[in-house]
């Protein structure tokens, strides 16, 4: 039987994933410098409080609201501040699901969304599975990463429905500047496009410039429809609880929320327990984020110490987020380099090509890794570059 052409032609793992599976079956210990699952990074979660929040009487009640429970939305609005209200929000099971709902809301089969490049590799599939085409628009690096607003505008066609930005971006860490925000919202208004702003990492500003747009919610009245995505997976480092949200602003916000609630009503995918627990989870999130931030800074300092002994290597500054870009002379492809590090040195890094950073000698490391693993992985890995 023929399956949908929206699916990939094969589900074969790539060479790095296949090599990793082989190392696993051989029982080899890997120094994983790509670990981005916070539940495996040794953080001291307030376990008793999290469990108690997930076992209140409210978790047994089923009283679905397609927009998500009022109390959960109030807690999320309180977390963001900036005049955001519960009725501006719609809950989802994850940011990925949020993208799916927004692509259903905005596009017809064959329409396009403009996505940043380099960035989060899931956009292509998330768009494709909704029948849309994600067209990458390259950002450029000049002292720091910049959106190429000229390229964005030239990429707009009669099929373009939306622009996606990630603030700060993954894996480049780039925050939008306030000037870029003004120009971007004006462009979207001029071209009749929606603007999707993924701010899952907005709480993790590191070496961020003063002119950064800390959050798109600083703009109370944007000239184009703005859909901000975030969720507990990064805000509270609790990806397993599956709670994301979309905040809606700009022209037509009330109608957009009504249509999103219609879409969400077909699935009602957000569980009652996580909605009941959301106010407590958000009240605990600050303490968890502090630990994550301490880890990011500590690993960045370890990286700088290690790089001092390797003048051929360098790193990009990390404006925000959980990743760092490591730069090396591009004597072989970054995919070949990552494979060599894994097979010969048991060190796992991601090639830049995973994120559309092609051929310029970039490797991507997660700053979330446990400190001892990160230090040892760098000691061995940098010497192998
Ligand atoms: C930019 C970006 N958006 C969204 C997500 C996923 O968020 P969620 O777990 O809420 O789907 C990630 C995960 O790493 C991400 O990097």
Describe the structure in your own words.
The protein contains 12 helices and 15 strands. With 385 residues, it is α/β, with parallel strands linked by helices. The chain has 2 domains: 15-44 and 285-383, Alpha-Beta Complex (Aspartate Aminotransferase, domain 1), CATH 3.90.1150.10; 47-283, Aspartate Aminotransferase, domain 2 (3-Layer(aba) Sandwich). Strands 2-10-9-8-7-3-4 form a 7-stranded mixed sheet, sandwiched between helices. Strands 11-12-15-14 form a 4-stranded antiparallel sheet. Helix 5 links the parallel strand 3 (112-117) and strand 4. The radius of gyration is 21 Å and the shape is globular. The model has no long low-confidence stretch (mean pLDDT 97). The chain binds pyridoxal-5'-phosphate.
Question: Secondary-structure map with pairings?
Answer:
Blueprint lengths: L14 H11 L5 E2 L14 H7 L16 H11 L8 E4 L2 H12 L5 E6 L5 H6 L4 E6 L1 E3 L1 E3 L2 H7 L4 E7 L11 H14 L2 E5 L27 E6 H4 L8 E6 L3 H13 L6 H36 L6 E2 L7 E5 L6 H12 L1 E2 L1 E2 L10 E5 L4 H13 L2
Parallel strand pairs: 1-13, 3-4, 3-7, 7-8, 8-9
Antiparallel strand pairs: 2-10, 5-6, 9-10, 11-12, 12-15, 14-15
Outline of the structure:
It contains twelve helices and 15 strands. The chain is α/β, with parallel strands linked by helices and 385 residues long.
| Percent in helix | 25-40%
Helix-strand sequence: HEHHEHEHEEEHEHEEHEHHEEHEEEH
Give the CATH superfamily of the largest domain.
Answer: Type I PLP-dependent aspartate aminotransferase-like (Major domain)
Enumerate the strands of the largest sheet in spatial order, edge to edge or round the barrel: 2-10-9-8-7-3-4
- How many DSSP H or I helices? 12
The shape, in one word, is globular
Quick one: how many beta strands?
Answer: 15
Bound molecules: pyridoxal-5'-phosphate
Proportion of residues in β-strands: 15-25%
Total count of domains: 2
How much is the radius of gyration in Å?
21 Å
Structural class: alpha/beta
| Oligomeric state as shown | single chain
| Sheet with most strands | 7 strands, mixed
Second-tier CATH architecture of the largest domain:
3-Layer(aba) Sandwich
């Amino acid at each position: 039987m023929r399956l949908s052409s929206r699916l990939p032609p094969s589900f074969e793992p790539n060479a790095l994933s296949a090599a990793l599976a082989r190392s696993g079956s051989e029982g080899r210990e890997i120094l994983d410098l790509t670990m981005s699952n916070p539940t495996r990074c040794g953080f001291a979660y307030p376990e008793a409080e999290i469990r108690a929040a997930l076992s209140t009487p409210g978790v047994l009640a089923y009283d679905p609201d397609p927009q998500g429970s009022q109390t959960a939305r109030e807690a999320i609005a309180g977390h963001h501040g900036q005049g955001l209200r519960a009725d501006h929000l719609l809950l989802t099971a994850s940011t990925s699901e949020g993208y799916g709902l927004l692509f259903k809301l905005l596009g017809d089969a064959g329409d396009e969304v403009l996505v940043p490049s380099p960035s989060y590799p899931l956009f292509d599939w998330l768009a494709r599975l909704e029948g849309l085409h994600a067209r990458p628009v390259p950002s450029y690096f000049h002292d720091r990463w910049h959106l190429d607003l000229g390229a964005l505008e030239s990429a707009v066609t009669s099929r373009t429905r939306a622009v996606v930005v990630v603030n700060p971006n993954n894996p480049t860490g780039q925050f939008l500047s306030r000037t870029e925000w003004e120009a971007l919202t004006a462009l979207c208004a001029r071209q009749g496009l929606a603007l999707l702003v993924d701010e899952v990492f907005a709480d993790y500003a590191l070496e961020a410039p003063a002119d950064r747009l800390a959050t798109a919610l600083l703009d109370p009245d944007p000239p184009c429809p703005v859909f901000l995505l975030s969720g507990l997976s990064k805000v509270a480092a609790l990806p397993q609880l599956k709670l994301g949200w979309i905040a809606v602003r700009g022209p037509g916000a009330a109608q957009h929320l009504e249509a999103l609630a219609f879409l969400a009503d077909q699935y009602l995918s957000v569980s009652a327990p996580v909605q009941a627990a959301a106010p407590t989870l958000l009240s605990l999130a600050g303490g968890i984020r502090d630990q994550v931030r301490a880890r990011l800074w500590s690993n960045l300092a370890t990286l700088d110490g290690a790089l001092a002994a390797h003048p051929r290597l360098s790193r990009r500054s990390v404006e925000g987020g959980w990743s760092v870009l490591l730069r090396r002379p591009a004597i072989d492809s970054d995919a070949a380099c990552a494979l060599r590090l894994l097979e010969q040195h048991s060190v796992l890094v991601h090639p830049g090509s995973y994120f559309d950073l092609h051929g310029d000698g970039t490797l991507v490391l997660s700053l979330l890794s446990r400190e001892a693993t990160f230090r040892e992985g760098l000691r061995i890995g940098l010497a192998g570059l």
